[in-house]
Amino acid sequence: MSLEAEVRAMASSAGIEPADLPIFGPSSEDGHPNVEFDGLQFHYVSKERNVEYKHMVLPSSEDAMYQIFEDAAFRAGVRYSRARSVPGRSDRRLIYERQAELLGLLRPEWKSRIEVVQAEKLKSQPFDDCEKERADFARDLRGKGKTAGEAWTLACKQFPLPLASGQVHLADRLKATDDLRSEVDDGDKEDGGALGAPES
Predict the structure, then answer these.
(1) Assign residue 175 a region: left if phi > 0, alpha if psi is -120 to 50, beta otherwise?
(2) How far apart are the C-alpha atoms of 61 and 105, rounded to whole Å?
(3) Residue partners of 93: CB distance under 8 A and separation at least 6
(4) Could you tell me which of 22, 21, 59, 20 has the C-alpha nearest to residue 37?
(5) Which residue(s) pair with 46 in the sheet?
(6) Residue 140 CB contacts under 8 Å (≥ 6 apart), including other chains
(7) Which of 75, 110, 131, 135 would be 103's cystine partner, CB 3.0–4.6 Å?
(8) Element (H, E) at 85
(9) Distance, CA of 69 to CA of 114 (rounded, Å)
(10) Buried (b) or exposed (e) across 91-108, using 16+ Cβ within 10 A?
(11) In sequence order, what are the residues at sequence separation of 6 or more whose Cβ sits closer than 8 angstroms to the Cβ of residue 175?
(12) CA 66-71-100 angle, 5° bins
C-alpha cells in the first residue's frame, strides 16, 4: 500500500477530512503542505508563490505519517474549536485537546508524543483564556475615544495577559521591588541605630 493510500485510510477511520491532508505530489503553491518522495526520503513542504515556509526531510514513511497527521489533526482541531468556542476559554485548549484525541485514535503513542510537544509550546505560549474579552474591551475603549495604546493598556489591566513560564506580571514585579526597597531601608535604619551617633 502506498503512503497516500495508507494515510487516506487512516484518516477516514479517525474522521479526519480529506481537506485536512496534504497534497501527495507537486505543491499547489498556495501554502497547503505537500508530500513528495525522492526515492530515498520524504519531503514535507509548505510553499506559496515559490517561497518555502516549511521543508522537512523525513527519512521513513513512519516519520512522514506522523508529521502528516500532526498537522492534519491540528487543522481538524481548529475547525472543531470554531464550532464550540465559548467565552472565557482559549480556543487553543479545544484545538490541542482535539489534536491529541485524533492522534490517539490513530496510534496511542502519537497522543503521548504530541502532548509532550504541546506542553513544551505552552511554556512560552500559554493559553490565553481572556483573549476575546480583552480584544472586545479594547475595541470598546477605542470607540469611546481612547487611543489604540491606551485602550490596549487598560484592557490588559482588566484582563491580564497570560504569563510564560518564569515570568511575572509587571504589577507583581513592581511590588516585589518596593518590598525589597522597604527591607533595605529598614535594614539601614537598624544598622544606624546599632552604631549610634558618630563620635565628635
Answers:
(1) alpha
(2) 19
(3) 127, 129
(4) 59
(5) 54
(6) none
(7) 110
(8) none
(9) 11
(10) bbebbbebbbbbbbbbee
(11) none
(12) 75
- Domain borders along the chain are 3-124, 131-195
Question: What's residue 4's pLDDT?
Answer: 95
Q: What does the pLDDT look like over 62-116, one tens digit per residue?
A: 999 999 999 999 999 999 999 998 889 999 999 999 999 999 999 999 999 999 9
List Cα–Cα distances, 130 to 90, 91, 145, 156, 172, in angstroms.
7, 10, 23, 10, 19
Quickly tell me which residue has 474579552 as its cell.
Answer: 133
User: Which amino acid does the sequence have at 179?
Assistant: D
Sign (positive/negative) of CA torsion 87, 92, 93, 97?
A: positive
> Tell me, what amino acid is at 69?
F
SS3 category, 53: strand
Question: What's the CA gap between 191 and 16, in Å, rounded?
Answer: 71
Alpha helices in the chain (DSSP H): 3-14, 61-82, 91-106, 108-124, 131-143, 148-158, 170-195
Q: Is residue 124 within 8 Å of residue 165, measured between CB atoms?
A: yes
Measured CA to CA, the distance from residue 149 to residue 152 in angstroms comes to: 5
